[in-house]
Amino acid sequence: MNVRIFGIVTVILFVGAVVNLSTTVFLSYDNPHLPLIGTQTHNTALALLNCATKRIPAIEWHKIRTCVQTLELYNVTNGHIPYIRGGSQTAAYVMPIVAPRRVFATNLYQKLNTVSKALVVIHECAHLALKVADIAYTWEENFDTLTEDEHLKNADSYRQTILNHCT
Ligand SMILES: [Zn+2]
How close is the Cα of 132 to the center of ligand 1, in Å? Predict the structure, then answer.
C-alpha cells in the first residue's frame, strides 16, 4: 500500500516538472526574435572580443565569437520570463540544453546602451559556448574571492575581464 502511494506521488511530481519546463520554454519562444548578426550590438561584441583575443589570448574567445555570430535574440515580455536567480536584475538568460543558440532578453536589456548589451550577450554566450555556470555575479561579495579556476567556470568573469581590459 505504502509502495503504491509512493509510486503515484513520484509520477505526479515527474509530470509536474515536465509541464513546468515546457511551459517555460513555450513562453520564452513565443516572442519576437531576430539573429543578432548585422546589428550594432553584434558589431560591438565582435570588436570587444577582438580586443580580448589580443590582450588575453589564452582564453577561448573564438567560441564566444561563433556564438555571437550565430545566435537568435528573443525579446521576452515580462510575463513570459521564467523564475531566475537574480530576479529583477536579469537582463538576459539562456536555456543551454533545449536552446543552445538562443539568448532571451528582458525589458531591462532594452534599456542598456550598446556596449552594455554587447557585454550581456558575451556573458550569455559564455554559458552557451563554454558551458560555464553562474558561480558569482560581479556585484556579489564572493566574486572577489573566486579562484582562477572558478573564474574560468563563471560566466560573469568573462564579461568582467572584457570590461576591465577593453572598454
Ligand atoms: Zn549567467
Answer: 9
Residue-range domains of the chain with CATH: 31-166 (3.40.390.10)
Around ion ligand 1, residues with a beta carbon closer than 5 Å are 134, 155
Helix (H) or strand (E) holding 94: strand 92-95
Task: Encode the chain (167 residues) as per-residue pLDDT tens digits.
Answer: 444 555 545 454 555 555 556 666 777 787 888 999 999 999 999 999 999 999 999 999 999 999 999 999 999 888 777 766 656 678 999 988 888 999 999 999 999 999 999 999 999 999 999 999 999 999 999 999 999 999 999 999 999 999 999 99
Question: 38 Cβ partners below 8 Å, 6+ apart?
Answer: none
Ligand 1 centre and the CA of 6: distance in Å?
36
Number of C-beta neighbours around residue 75 at 10 A: 15
Q: State residue 63 phi and psi, 5-degree precision.
A: -70, -40
- Grid cell, residue 29, equals 519562444
Give me ligand 1 centre to Cα 38, in Å.
24
Whether 73 and 34 have beta carbons less than 8 Å apart is answered as yes
- Could you tell me the distance, in angstroms and rounded to a whole number, from the CA of residue 20 to the centre of ligand 1? 21
pTM to 2 decimal places = 0.84
